Amino acid sequence: MNNDWQSLFAKDASLFPHLADLPKDQVLLSTMSETLFHQASFLDQRIFTPDLPRQIVAWADIEAVSLPDFPRPQYIFHIGHVGSTLISRLLGELDNIFALREPAILRQLAEVEVNQPAEVGWSSDEQAERLAQVEKWLSRVFHAGQRAMIKASSFVSPLARPLLAKNGTALFLFASLDRYLQTILAGDASKQETSALADLRLHRLARHCGQTLCKKEDLSLAQTAALGWLCEMATLCDAKSRCADAAIVWMDFDDFLREPASQLQVAADHFGQKLSPDHAQSLISGPIMSSYSKAPEFDYSPSLRQQLLAEAAQIHADDIKQTLLWVDQLARRFPIIAAAIATAETRR
Known about the structure:
This protein has helices at about 5-10, 35-40, 60-65, 85-90, 105-115, 125-140, 160-165, 175-185, 190-195, 200-210, 220-240, 255-260, 260-270, 275-285, 300-315, 315-335, 335-345, and strands at about 15-20, 25-30, 55-60, 75-80, 95-100, 145-150, 170-175, 245-250, 290, 295-300.
């Protein structure tokens, strides 16, 4: 990169704020083409290559860049493993949507939100100001008429409330608890991820409930998976209840898979995009629906997903049954858990 990066940053989205070094107050900028954004499943260090131009600049220097008034991003928040990347890819095929999938810098700010701003020396006001700055950076697009749509990582859900507080627009993706348990228990990688996140999710859920629920060591495999559902659903329910002026639509991923064309139209309409029935049918009939969204080189269809979930439901039947009873007991004790269950049941 040359020293004229400020003018490039103000022009369009090609200089991407990839990662922040919060203690040093610096940001890593990467040069990204529109095609690379379109292809990327994750906007984090996983897409770094030796050929990707990068430069470290001071946060204050980016803050000083005068930006045009791009429209605020719209969002897809979700509970994890519920088709958010798939739906982001499908919507990203529309001309006026600039899809950003899992910007790492938002995950960093979510970690600050969970661990409290004092961890990096920020006041609460400064934390809010930094988040607003990053949102403005991520609002930049390539063409007139485009609008950024951020598909956040599930770990970023603690930021849903501040990001949507002032007339924000979002799609909240979820699955029923039993389907979520089957999904997590169907894959070794998802089970490992769930176990690794258990302590953090217990901490987050304790903040919603007002007390610690249990110890990680006391949880069965299915209970550990249920913890993820409870934590992320409670977080989204809390955001919905506190953002009365936000435009939020809930969507059950299994409803989407049953009627993908019409559900895709619902999502597009919510985001203010025109999508005809024919165009919707063309999109869901194309290669996006028949490949693994996070790694399109691998085949993964709704029918294969159904087969894997059915196998997991059979193998883990007893653990799932006991876990559903455990969650019912928690719902009697904690209103936020009851609200999460009620939301999942009434939105189906």
